[in-house]
Amino acid sequence: MIIFRLIGESFRFAFDALRQNRMRTVLSLLAITIGIFTIIGVFSGVDTFRNKLQSSVDKLGSKTIFVDKFPWIFGDYPWWKYINRPQPSIRDYTSLNERMGNATGIVFKARSSNRTIKYRSNSVEGATLLAVTQDFNKTSNFELVDGRYYTESESKSGSPVCLIGSEIADGLFNDETAVGKQVQVMGRKVTVIGVFTKEGEDMLGTSLDNNIVIPLNFAKGLFNVEDQQYNPQIIVSGSDNVSLEESESEVRGLMRAIHRLKPGQEDDFALNKTTMLSNQLDTMFDAVNIGGWVIGLFSILVGGFSIANIMFVSVKERTNIIGIQKSLGAKRYFILLQFIFESITLCVMGGLLGLLLVYLSTVIIDYFFDFKIVLYLKNINLGLWISVAIGVISGFWPAYSASKLDPVEAIRS
Questions:
Q1: Per-residue pLDDT for 350 more than 80?
Q2: 217 and 329 share a domain?
Q3: What is the pLDDT of residue 164?
Q4: Which among 387, 303, 309 has a CA at the least distance from the CA of 344?
Q5: Which of 125, 358, 396, 408 is the most buried (most CB within 10 A)?
Q6: Residues 200 and 228 in one domain
Q7: 407, 352 in Cβ contact below 8 A?
Q8: Which keywords annotate this record (predicted)?
Q9: pLDDT given at position 295
Q10: C-alpha pair distances (Å), 231 with each of 86, 130, 131, 155
Q11: Considering the domain boundaries, does residue 316 fall inside one?
Q12: Which residues constitute the domain of residue 47?
């Protein structure tokens, strides 16, 4: 009980000192406020972008393998090494589909961007046309708000049917039902059989909101689906009971056999996985986090020196009071705690103000730019612990020098 009473009394002395010097208190905590705002602001922004990008990556599937001409590489890209590779072909897809044992679905996909979709007098520009084979619903995570997915017979016969994203449906039909209506795509009439559920913005372009999906055999009559400009790609979704490494090994072996590559000969194809994106994103965001620490710590360092200076001034101003307290029996640790708590209180106030600014920034960004930044509890705790640590470090030496004062000399001063 005595210890708690001493701590409470130390806090009371600290608050009295801060209240009596309001202007000095406000100026002292500004540097801490800026430092905490910088660090926690950067961390919150990084966490938000990381989560949005990771959710986009997760939509591609954790056990999905993409057979491409070019690998997913960030940084220096040796394009000359891959430029002469063959494009993934329908022959490759057919052979994989016949021989692959550990797969829940295999899809050949071609993409045509910036297409105009028309319905009567309405039109939507900038739509992405996806030509896919039957297993597209097994390799992609999506839901339909209306209608159905196309059947195997529609896929094989190349029926003029399509599924459209929510933005296309809103732009062409407003509040009307889209299913059953015919839209015009690349000069051909196509019947809408389904509408994708609205997914919202996507940072990797995996959202289907502005996409129109048609059977590959129907798309063959519209454009050359194996041409490089349409980014042909084979997507393999591995079985749940088989590891990604096993599926990748099987796909690599089959592709090498299909392309008749000799042992020791380098692959003429790329097997891309979502883990490659995740690892690159982690590296990039770790670098941004380090940058946030560096910038924020410079501000906090300046704030720490400022608070240490203020605490020395505070000790000088209250030297005679310290002498009176010690002459009345106050112990050294009581004087020490009194000034350390004052320093901690000052830093925590600055930290709370910095966190408040971060929160207000997230509200403003969400309101004006419709982009939600999340302030996680772990970042709030981190900001408070940093404030406490700076308070202890900055206030220890002034508090220690105050606790060592001789009571007679202190009173005489």
A1: yes
A2: no
A3: 94
A4: 387
A5: 358
A6: yes
A7: no
A8: Cell membrane, Membrane, Transmembrane, Transmembrane helix
A9: 76
A10: 12, 10, 11, 20
A11: yes
A12: 2-56+279-412
